[in-house]
Structures are given as C-alpha cells and as structure tokens.
Amino acid sequence: MTILDGKKISNDIKDEITEQVKKMKAKGEKVPHLAAVIVGNDGASLTYVGSKVRACERVGFESTMVRMSNTTSEIELLDKIEELNQDDAIDGFIIQLPLPPQINTQKVLMAVDPNKDVDGFHPENFGKMALDMSTFIPATPFGILELLDRYGVETKGKHTVVIGRSHIVGRPMSILMGRKGFPGNSTVTLTHSHTKNITQITSQADIIISALGVPNFLKAEMVKDDAVIIDVGITRVPDESSPKGYVITGDVDFENVSKKASYITPVPGGVGPMTIAMLLKNTLLAREQRM
C-alpha cells in the first residue's frame, strides 16, 4: 500500500512555482497576483483564505484579501467583482464559498471574468474542460489528477467510481477521468444519494474517488483488493479527547480500507494540500495568458 502524500507533492509544486516566479522577477516581469473575496465571518472560510494568502507569500506571488461584511448585498458584491475584472494588476481571483443567503451564488460565479476564474467554476471554463480544451480546471479535481500523475497510477482502461456529484468535485472528476489522455481513459460510474446497491458498484471499482462529506462512509467491505482510493471528504467530527474538541475525518474508513488498497490518500494531508497548490498553478497560468 502506497500513501498518496498530498503534503509532499504540494510542496514540490510550490517549489517549482517559486523557481518560475524567480525567473519572472529576473526578467523584470510582473509576478502573478491572486485576489480572494470573502463575504462574512465564517471561521473555516477565513482559515482557508488565510492559508491561500500564506501560500502566495511562499511562492512569491502578490495577494489581496477583499473582506466584505455578512450584510453585503448582491449588487455590492457584483460591483466588487466587476472592479476586479477590470483591474489589470489582478491576474486571477476567487470568491470564497459559501456566500450569505441574500446572495445568489450562481449569479456571482457567472459574473467573474472567465480569464480570471482560477477556481474554474465559470460555465465557460467548465464547458471547455468537458470538451478537452485548454482551460482552468477546478483546483481540487486538478490536484487529484496531479497526484495520480506524479505517482504514476494507471488509469487507462480502469473502472473509476466517483461518489458524489457536486459541481466542484464529483461531476468534474467524472468528466476528467473519462477524457482522452493521462490521467484519464477510464470507464466512469458516477454515484450519488439516489444510487441503489452502491456497495455492488464500489466493490467492482479499480479507482474510487469519494467526495460525499459523510465521515467513514466507505468501508473495507465496499472495496476490492488493490483498489486506488481517493478521499476528498473533510468533516469536523466532535472528539472530546482532541485538544481542538474535534478531529478531521474523511469519507473513507482509512484504518481498514488502507489494508486492502494499493494507493490511498490520507485525511488530512492528501487531497486538501493539493487544492491550494493547484490554485497557485492556475494563477500562474492566468498570468502567463495575460503576458
């Protein structure tokens, strides 16, 4: 069994990006600039955006955090997005989700300039991804592809089962794993809350990508020997024995499933660190496209 170490690979990617930024500086070129818009005071969102800002500092990017109050109106947010769209100093920006209930998330994501949409959420970029065209791939699916690539995990001709159909992970992964090329060329089954006999399906899978958000959902009896397991789930589970009062748990019963898997991602330290690394990679790509 091999651990797919997202922490190590993400650090490798950050080191590679750092070298590219040094070369840009040496040529007198403008370095990439990433902005993040956060509306409200959600603790998890603030922590996540803070880690993105620190990652920018590490690789030599410029970064801007735009904080807006929980009472921000949809019009005010749309005005801020248009300002960022027009700002030539900003190469890419993200809108941290979730947004407060008074704001239509889809309307907001549609307002982002597709050329600055480094999250890869705009329908134009999603459509390009589905058509195998060059575009920004959503950061978490992009990170999963990179892990499979760098560990040389064979995907051609394999049966991939994706659990969860969110627009951010599940649905893009089902498209990407079936595309021509590597990683890809697998036969994909997309499962969700209405799928019947899910154990029958997962037990036939060569690769399982779980993005459900249900702690320890995938049990050892649902997995065949030597399967590749990608755990995207990340849930805070109350635990009085932990100093924080909770533990971070994935979708996979790691202790038991890892005994059968050929490759598996841990939680934390698997897919999570890759997401930020690939957001940086998308921002570098956005900068290069604007040069």
* Overall geometric form: globular
Major beta sheet, specifics?
6 strands, parallel
Structural class: alpha/beta
Counting DSSP E segments of at least 2 residues, the number of strands comes to 11
Strand and helix order: EHEHEHEHHHEHEHEEEEHEH
CATH-defined topology of the largest domain: Rossmann fold
Write up what this structure looks like:
The protein has 291 residues and is an alpha/beta fold. It has 2 domains: 28-113, Leucine Dehydrogenase, chain A, domain 1 (Rossmann fold, 3-Layer(aba) Sandwich), CATH 3.40.50; 139-273, Rossmann fold. 39% of the residues lie in helices and 16% in strands. The chain contains 10 helices and 11 strands. It has helices spanning 6-26, 43-59, 74-86, 105-111, 123-130, 139-150, 170-176, 198-202, 254-257, 271-290, and strands at 2-3, 33-39, 62-68, 92-95, 159-163, 187-191, 207-210, 228-231, 235-238, 246-249, 263-264. The chain has a 6-stranded parallel beta sheet with strand order 1-11-8-7-5-6. Strands 3-2-4 form a 3-stranded parallel beta sheet, covered by helices on one side. Strand 9 and strand 10 form a beta hairpin. Helix 1 packs parallel to helix 10 (271-290) and helix 6 crosses helix 10. The termini are far apart.
Q: How would you describe this structure in keywords?
A:
10 helices, Rossmann fold, globular, alpha/beta, 2 domains
Q: What's the topology here?
A:
Elements: E1 2-3, H1 6-26, E2 33-39, H2 43-59, E3 62-68, H3 74-86, E4 92-95, H4 105-111, H5 123-130, H6 139-150, E5 159-163, H7 170-176, E6 187-191, H8 198-202, E7 207-210, E8 228-231, E9 235-238, E10 246-249, H9 254-257, E11 263-264, H10 271-290
Parallel strand pairs: 1-11, 2-3, 2-4, 5-6, 5-7, 7-8, 8-11
Antiparallel strand pairs: 9-10
